[in-house]
Specification:
five-stranded mixed sheet, about 400 residues, alpha+beta, Helix Hairpins, Heat Shock Protein 90
Length: about 400
């Protein structure tokens, strides 16, 4: 109903103006006709006319009483005729005014709709861009409004210029992250090769080997950070090439490769077919499993389930739940933001980069889905990823 507010207002305004104009015209007509009838009434409506009365007057003897009675009859007949004429004018005028008002309302509705079409187009474009999944998605759209160079077209052109600048800004940001990540990979790979060579060469002392292992650990962390940035940059792009993927198969493969480190793994994998990029979906599942293992408690567990819903539209669902520290509900959204961590100790004693769940949500939205998390009673999280079923 909100979308028609301006149109309804314009319709009521124009309809009221037409109605007032018609009412004013009817009132003026009523006054003029009334004045005219005061001066002269001589139209035959089946009653006696002035001419008939004149004939009667000629036949009446010079009797004052007869003259007075006849004069009163003439005046009464004229008054009745005037009232009938004015009543007919008001009745037919009111009907005509009602018809004109309805026609004016319908015409105003059409004109207002025609005039507001450009604004509705701008609104729909802005709504599609605002509802696009992922930062910067949908900014490639343009209104490209055609028509005269009025204020509405100027608004649409200004909106297009703003979209173009935002699109360039987001695109430049994604390219910068991708290029920087690629440039940083080369020196890290070189560092790893040099350290491995120094550690494995004959005659290396124990101190050198321990130092080399520490450097390799730091280098590995940096490589994982760069890899996460690349994945996040890729996930922000819209998935163009999609292939059928079963989330149950992806989850089974990831769980087979996982290193639980004393955490019990429970799996309930049912067919969950979707369409997308297998590599990104594998990374999504891997991040969920790794987070569930790292952010756990000694002798804890994690459960992975997959399946499909029968809703319309159907969804493929991947759910990963685990034991772990208690997470307040108000901090859930923080977990999905890049480089944001809660600072709690992990099972492996390390510290992550805060990219795991942000990559999960970015990949899910790139596939037209969503990733949500809720605190698990007793500690831990329940993370659910929903994707369009294939």
């Amino acid at each position: 109903m909100k979308r028609w507010t301006i149109r309804l207002r314009l319709t009521v305004l124009f309809g009221a103006l037409f109605f007032l104009a018609g009412a004013l015209l009817l009132g003026v007509t009523y006054v003029l006709v009334n004045q005219r009838l005061e001066d002269r009434v001589g139209i035959d409506r089946g009653n006696k006319t002035v001419t008939d009365f004149r004939s009667q007057l000629q036949a009446v003897p010079q009797n004052p009483e007869a003259w007075e009675a006849l004069r009163q009859e003439i005046m009464a007949e004229q008054e009745r005729y005037r009232e009938e004429t004015l009543d007919s004018l008001l009745t037919q005028g009111a009907v005509a005014l009602l018809v004109v008002g309805l026609a004016a309302g319908a015409f105003s509705w059409l004109v207002a709709g025609r005039a507001l079409q450009p604004l509705q187009r701008i609104t729909e474009t802005a709504r599609r861009i605002a509802g696009a999944d992922g930062a910067g998605r949908g900014l490639h759209e343009r209104i490209a409004l055609a028509g005269p160079g009025d204020e509405v077209k100027e608004l649409a052109d200004t909106f297009d210029v703003m979209l173009e600048r935002l699109d360039r800004s987001f695109d430049g940001q994604r390219r910068f992250v991708a290029n920087a990540s690629h440039e940083l990979r080369t020196p890290l790979a070189l560092n790893r090769a040099l350290v491995e060579l120094a550690v494995t060469r004959p005659g290396a002392t124990g101190e050198t080997k321990r130092l080399g292992e520490s450097l390799l650990t730091v280098n590995e962390r940096h490589e994982r950070l760069i890899d996460g940035l690349l994945t996040l940059a890729d996930a922000e792009q819209e998935i163009a090439d999609r292939t059928p993927v079963d989330l149950a198969e992806v989850a089974a493969y990831v769980l087979d490769q996982a290193k639980p480190g004393g955490v019990e793994i429970v799996r309930d994998l049912r067919a969950a077919s979707t369409a997308g990029d297998p590599i990104l979906l594998e990374r999504l599942t891997q991040n969920l499993v790794e987070n569930a293992i790292r952010h756990n408690v000694p002798d804890g567990w994690l459960a992975v389930t997959t399946g499909s819903t029968s809703d319309q539209p159907a969804l493929a669902v991947l759910t990963v739940s685990n034991t772990g520290p208690v997470v307040p509900g108000y901090e859930i959204e923080t977990l999905f933001q890049p480089f944001r961590r809660l600072g709690r100790e992990r099972v492996d004693g390390g510290r992550g980069f805060g990219l795991g769940l942000s990559i999960v949500r970015a990949v899910a939205r790139a596939h037209g889905g969503e990733a949500q998390a809720v605190p698990r009673e007793g500690g831990g999280l329940v993370v659910q990823v929903t994707l369009p079923a294939n």
